[in-house]
C-alpha cells in the first residue's frame, strides 16, 4: 500500500503548550496575522488536511481541500454529506493508508492541523512539525497540543519522538512571534 510522501503539522500554542482554552476554543490571543499567513501558505502546499471534528483552518480556500476528519462517531470511513472532498475517519476502524486511498490521494502530502489527539496520532510519522509559540499568552486548564502537556513541554514530546529542532524563524519581530520547524 502507498504511503504519503510527506506528513507535516501546524500548531500555534500558548507559553504553557495549549492550543485552545478550557472550552476547546482557540482564543483570539492565539491568532496572529503572520502565523495565519505561514499556516495558510503551508496548507496550500499539501494535498490533504487532517483534523478533528472541532478543528478547521477557516480559510477562503478551505472548501477546496480534500480532508480527513477524525471522529469516533463512525466505524471506519464515511463520506461527509456536507463536503464531497471530505471523509470522516475513525483510526480504530481503518488505517491511515486506507483513509488516504478512499480519499483518492494514497501518496499525497498531508497537513495535520489538530487537535490534541490528532496531533498525537502522528507523532512517530511526522516529517516536519511547525510549532509556533504565542508570546505572553497562557491558557491555564486549556487544551494541550499533545496529551503529555503540561507535564512535558511540546518540544520535549517532539524530541522524544525523533524530531529535531530546526532554526527559529521569526514571523513577527514586533511581538516576538516565531515558529520552529521540527524535522525527522
Detail the topology: elements first, then pairings:
Layout (H helix, E strand, L loop, with lengths): L5 E8 L4 E3 L12 H11 L4 E5 L13 E5 L6 E3 L6 E4 L6 H7 L6 E4 L3 H6 L6 E6 L9 E2 L9 H7 L7 E5 L4 E7 L1
Parallel strand pairs: 1-7, 1-8, 3-4, 3-7, 4-6
Antiparallel strand pairs: 2-9, 5-6, 8-11, 10-11
Q: How does this model look, in words?
A:
17% of the residues lie in helices and 28% in strands. The chain has four helices and eleven strands. The chain has helices at residues 33-43, 96-102, 116-121, 154-160, and strands at residues 6-13, 18-20, 48-52, 66-70, 77-79, 86-89, 109-112, 128-133, 143-144, 168-172, 177-183. Strands 5-6-4-3-7-1-8-11-10 form a nine-stranded mixed beta sheet, sandwiched between helices. A two-stranded antiparallel sheet has the order 2-9.
Main sheet summary: 9 strands, mixed
Order of helices and strands: EEHEEEEHEHEEHEE
**Annotation field: number of helices:** 4
Class, according to the CATH hierarchy?
Answer: Alpha Beta
Rg is 16 Å
Strand order of the biggest β-sheet: 5-6-4-3-7-1-8-11-10
CA-to-CA gap between the ends? 22 Å
Which band does the percent of strand residues land in?
25-35%
Could you name the ranges where pLDDT drops below 50 across 5 or more consecutive residues?
none
Amino acid at each position: 500500500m502507498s504511503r504519503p510522501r510527506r506528513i507535516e503539522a501546524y500548531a500555534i500554542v500558548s507559553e504553557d503548550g495549549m492550543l485552545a482554552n478550557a472550552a476547546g476554543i482557540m482564543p483570539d490571543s492565539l491568532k496572529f496575522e503572520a502565523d495565519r499567513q505561514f499556516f495558510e501558505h503551508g496548507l496550500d502546499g499539501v494535498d490533504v488536511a487532517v483534523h478533528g471534528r472541532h478543528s478547521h483552518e477557516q480559510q477562503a480556500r478551505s472548501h477546496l481541500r480534500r480532508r480527513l476528519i477524525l471522529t469516533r462517531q463512525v466505524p471506519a470511513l464515511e463520506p461527509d454529506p456536507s463536503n464531497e472532498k471530505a471523509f470522516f475517519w475513525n483510526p480504530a476502524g481503518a488505517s491511515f493508508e486506507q483513509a488516504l486511498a478512499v480519499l483518492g490521494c494514497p501518496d499525497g502530502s498531508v497537513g495535520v492541523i489538530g487537535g490534541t489527539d490528532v496531533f498525537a496520532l502522528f507523532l512517530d510519522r511526522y516529517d516536519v512539525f511547525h510549532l509556533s509559540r504565542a508570546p505572553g499568552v497562557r491558557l491555564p486548564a486549556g487544551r494541550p497540543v499533545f496529551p503529555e502537556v503540561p507535564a512535558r513541554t511540546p518540544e520535549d514530546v517532539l524530541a522524544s519522538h525523533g524530531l529535531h529542532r530546526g532554526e527559529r524563524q521569526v514571523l513577527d519581530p514586533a511581538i516576538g512571534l516565531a515558529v520552529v520547524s521540527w524535522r525527522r
